[in-house]
Amino acid sequence: MDRREILVGGGALAALLLSQAGRGDEHVHDGPDHSHHVHGARRFAALAGAAADCVKTGQVCIDHCLDMFAQGDNATAACARSVNQLLPVCTALQQLAAQNSPYVQRYASLAREICRDCERECRKHEKEHQACRDCAESCAACAKECDAVAA
C-alpha cells in the first residue's frame, strides 16, 4: 500500500464519518431492533478504556524518557523499557476487549502482570516526572480492570 492509497482511503473514511455526523436523530433504522443485545464493546468497555488510557499515558512517558536520554540522563532507562513492552500489550488488549474476543480473559492475565511491572518502574520516578506518575496511575487502573476479567 503506497502513500496515495492511504490518503485516498483516509479521505473516503473521513467523508463517510462526516456524512454520518450530520444525521443525528434523523436516521431511520429499517432493520430489526437490536437494542436488547449486549455488544462486545460494552461487555469489556471499562477494560478497553483503561487499556487505551495506558497506551496514551505510556506514549507520553516514553517520549519523556527519550527527551531525558537526549540530554544525557539515562535514569529512566528501565522505565522506558517497561513502557516499551507495555504499549503493544495494551494496544492489543484494547482491541481484544472492544471486539469481545474469547481471548480477553486469558490475555488480561498477561496484561495485568505487564501493567504491574510498568507501574513499579514508573513509581520510581513519579516524584520527579509527571509523565511517569500518570503512566503509573493508568497502569494501576488497567491492572485493576484486568483483575475484574482475568481468567
Structural account:
This protein is mostly helical. The chain has a single domain (40-149), classed as Up-down Bundle (Substrate Binding Domain Of Dnak, Chain:A, Domain 2). It is built from 6 helices and no strands. The chain has helices spanning 3-21, 40-43, 45-70, 77-98, 104-123, 130-149. It is elongated. The N and C termini lie far apart (39 Å). The model is unreliable at 1-29 (pLDDT under 50).
Estimate nothing, just give the exact number of structural domains.
1
Nearest-integer average pLDDT: 82
Global geometry: elongated
- Rg is 19 Å
- The CATH class, by name, is Mainly Alpha
Q: Which second-level CATH architecture applies?
A: Up-down Bundle
CATH topology value: Substrate Binding Domain Of Dnak, Chain:A, Domain 2
Structural class: mainly alpha
What level of helicity do the residues show? over 70%
Strand fraction band? under 5%
Can you tag this structure with a few keywords?
single chain, mainly alpha, 151 residues, 74% helix, elongated, disordered N terminus, Substrate Binding Domain Of Dnak, Chain:A, Domain 2
